[in-house]
Amino acid sequence: MSSPSIILAGAGAVSSAGWGTESLFNAIQESRNLPTELSQREGSPSHVQIRRVPKPDTPLAFMRNPRLRRSSPISRYAVAAALEALGEERHAQVIDSTYRLGVLFVFMNGCVNYSNRFYGEVLNDPSLASPILFPETVFNAPASHLAAMLESRGPAYTLIGDSAQFLGGMDLGIEWLLDNQVDGVLVVGSEELDWLSTEAASLFSSNIIVSEGAGAVLLEATVNETDFPKICGITPAFSYGNDRSRSQATAQLMEALPTAEGLQVQYGLDNDLLDISSILGNALGAGLALQCTYTQTALANQNVSSAQVIHVGSNQQAIGAWFRA
Amino acid sequence: MAFNAEQLTTTSPPSRVFVTGAGIVTSLGLGWEVNAIGFREGRAALRDISLFDTSRQRTSRGGEVELPTIIDQRQLTDRQFRRLDRASKLLLLAGYEAWDQARWGEHERQLAPPVVIGTSAGGMSLGEAYYQQAASSTRRHGQATRVALYQPQSQVLTLSHSLGINGPISIVSNACASGADAIGQAYRLIRSGRAECVITGGYDALCQLVFAGFDSLQALTPGLPRPFDAGRDGLALGEGAAVLMLESEAHAAARDASLLGEIGAYGCATDVHHLTQPHPQGLAALASMTAACREANVSPTDVDYINAHGTGTPKNDVAEGAAIQQWAGDNAAKIKVSSTKGSIGHLLGGAGSVETVVSLMALQGQWVPPSLNVRTPDPVCTFDLIREPRTAKVDTVLTNSFGFGGSNATLVLRRAS
Known about the structure:
- The structure holds two protein chains of two kinds.
- By secondary structure, chain A is an alpha/beta fold.
- Chain A is built from nine helices and 14 strands.
- Chain B has two domains: about 240 residues, Peroxisomal Thiolase, Chain A, domain 1 (3-Layer(aba) Sandwich), CATH 3.40.47; about 150 residues, Peroxisomal Thiolase, Chain A, domain 1 (3-Layer(aba) Sandwich), CATH 3.40.47.
- The longest helix of chain B is centred in the N-terminal third of the chain and has 17 residues.
- At the A-B interface, helix 3, helix 4, strand 6, helix 5 and helix 6 of A face strand 1, helix 5, helix 6, helix 7 and strand 7 of B.
């Protein structure tokens, strides 16, 4: 029996360019100048530039789900991106248990809106802190909401790491597929804006434009010929350490990647390759998810026949992947 | 870890996965020996928390660890060593013990073993300090360091740096199932042949945000935690860490390693019932136990002991009990069950890994630890609820971990042979 191919069977996005992969793709193709604003908190000396996700054109139907009633933007963005990546047919199969779905939720900051609110209440008077807020501060609350909304009872993991973690999530999703634990894996990266994380990001870069949003890809394994883009490889994650600096990790990553051809989408390299964060803003843990989503769309649209995604993370790892149409 | 479509090999028989090193830190003390004695004798180690103000909470007790005044620096730089936060110290102490017990060295460093660790809060106390300064002052001094070090990758990278390894890192944050899911994922890396050796485990340190959060939900007992007692009224929070060194059978055999036990299987499932409450019948718990036992090819008659999640909250214990009943069927009465959370509290992201080490202790020592503080067992306990320390034949153990958000995980452990 031939080895299966791992395909990108779907993609979804919510970004400062709007809701959906089409908005993301067009904004990047056109190098659109997306609006920014200043994040200012009363009493704070920080004035950080941000790019928000615009309000959706129409009300989000999925917000009628009771699990999402109190959710913060990180969950809403994730659900929107996941539903787009999964598609209605697959979602119906998940609900009737004919499709085993795995969920991998990846981020760097997580549920900062509710953490900010809840801890503020704790400092004010812990005996009055709201029990409604606390569960939404837990790192895996968004993954839980997503799995519940999709009615997916398979594995649902939350992975935390620096901004390069999303490809580690895809790598784990491939393991689940090759081990036949699931029929498909949704890998979702999502972040939300809050002064807590915005001001923190500005401590490391004075000219950063902090953003938010979510990217999602649906991975499947197939032995059949297919029109979906294929994942050819994911490099090891080159962790930073006392024996491997960030620049050394980057050099090892570049050696591990095959000779570049086609589209190259990078973050963290000092070169002229496409860096979509220069258009969207820095979406932190969701940034690499949006890199992958954009790449999937470019390959699926037949704009390019091959692509590489390269991401040099802030404080943990450098990693890359290569794809073909 | 890493994927290359051109190098996919045909499926080889799954490797057996052995534990060759284990380190543990709980409020009972530091290390395998003191913890084994504590769990074997049914000691409790809950005390008034000194780390933050609890005067406005419903309870002030928890499983706070007494950290040693001196910690080995190993391969950490002076700067890294000076910056160690509480969570990192817990993880390091467990990691050092596991590394030393496994007798890993340069050969394993060259393999760049993956590190798969679970946590629910990382270095949250540093995040709290960042918040307090940002909210009350315009000073930025020290803030960048707090931001960098509160993130969970900081603690896990610190462990890697201290041991001189630079393998890929995965941090699983599935709430209270984090540690068990991390071990399960590490087990699968070896079982599938993707790695020969993996460092795995979990940790969490007590912090104000989480303590106040559980208190706000009225999930903390104002008295003693009484898992599986009919009158239980909540859990106690604890802190700690456990780290395990996992090896393939071939790797362990090649170096004639001492075996502490075998990870026989891992099962997981998601409970979509409610964000903070389990399905009343424990359907996802049943699914994770069933999946793990199917993979291990064991039936309820083969299982000697279940280290239950057993938080001591009204809803968790009855749901888990119902799942055990349904899973075990007519064999329920013969299966020994206990929760060790009455001794050390609920370690959240560290719970699954610490309870895996407790289960290994039971397999090694041929005893089962008791559920403390049970006065009248809940009617759901149709199984053999262990209330006093007991010597027993223990060859196969299940350990359950169920988390906020519906993460359910079960590991099957076997006596090494």
